Prior knowledge:
Distance between the termini: 74 Å
Order of helices and strands: HHHHHHEEEEEEHEEHHHHH
Low-confidence stretches: 303-315
Amino acid sequence: MKRLHTFILKSYIGPFVLTFFIALFLLLMQFLWKYIDDLIGKGLDIGVIVELLLYATITLVPMALPLAILLSSIMTFGNLGENNELMALKSSGISLIRIMFPLINFIILVCIGAFFFSNIVMPYSSLKMGALLYDVRHQKPEVSIKEGMFSDAIEGYSIKVSKKNKNTSMLYGLMIYDHSENNGNRIVTVADSATLTVTSDNRYMVLTMYNGTGYTEVVEKRKRKDQKKYPHRQENFKEQRVLIDMSGLGFERTDEKLFRNHYQMLNLNQLQYAVDSLVISLGKRESIFKNQLVNSNYIKRVSVVAKDSLWFLSKDVPLESLPIDSLYNSLVDNAKQSVFDQALNNARSTKSFVASSSTEFVNKTKWIKRHEIEWHRKLTLSFACLILFFIGAPLGAIIRKGGLGMPVVISVLFFIVYYVISMSGEKSAKIGAWPAWLGMWLSAMILFPLGIFLTYKAANDSVILNIDTYLKSFKKLFILAKNIKSFLGEAFRRKSK
């Protein structure tokens, strides 16, 4: 049996490693396609890009691993069935479950490793990738000035050139709006030509302009607005240099502590602690809201001054204890209108308070849901690997087709079903339609019975997915239809005679 177990493991590990890296590569290409606009034209070092791709690759493992297990299981048992090795083993009295036993142990170890990977490695890589991707997205592009259009690549300046000479790096027909003082388009410079160079320490950019004119509108701060005359100053120059600080153009790292409390950067214990803290905070906020709504908005407590001897000055008299109709009827028309206006203002302010508080509660509840979903995600990854193995291995034994043809098609179809069910359940949990545990475990609840059913069918040599069986059935139906047609034709000819 040891030789058999070794043979089965060797037959499985090769396709598993191959399909895992293929799936990981395809998912990484999808990531690059999604964020290609954030990476191109930013002047990033190759080391930064490689680091970002490394962290992205780690975060894509939870999607690549279940797909690799499903595809490699179908390929392995499909090859065994196609080469009649599976039939030979069964003829020797070895059941399918016994053949799968070493792979079941291997998949259990993979599931345990996937759990620790999801709980320890994933939060760290998500933190690193989130911080780095934030820095890349907010990285200012290299100074690239295009012809015939204004460029805001240099902070505080808007530059337009009519023509560029790529060989000499000269700029012609230059127009610059200086916005460094945030006072609008007060300072404008026009020059026939200019050069743009960078100092040796890469700290400053030197813009040297030739044969130009500078226009400045002088602001008179001490005069009133209606007395200002907005004097204009014009300066002609043959050569003028502008020193631009480049400290904001370099790539800078953001402090990772800003992202540390995000739910994707937490492990199981931290997520549970965060959920408990958020639930307690939400309960306290709801209690404050109810007390404020009842004491300040719903029931008003007022001080009453009587017009006759029946009423006296009282403090904090509950509104419900007063004879509202009698008091209202004793008022003059102007006072009645004032009461209506005051009541309307109170109702509007209460409505606004309830609406803003409701939005706050909805957002807090959604944030709690996100933490609960992430908590269950740590567990569903491991269980998904086990389920997809018990789907893939029986499927391979039933269809008896190896290679990358039929197994790829079937595995992709089943993975799409698994992914659609998972995303639907997760979306329902995010919007609060379902509990977090139901949304995240929905795919497992649906596919686990399917895996048991397929394993039972494969263990009993079912032909449920054997194409030749269905082809034979269609051939029999075709022959039967042909015989019926010939019989009816013969009967019609006899009747006509």
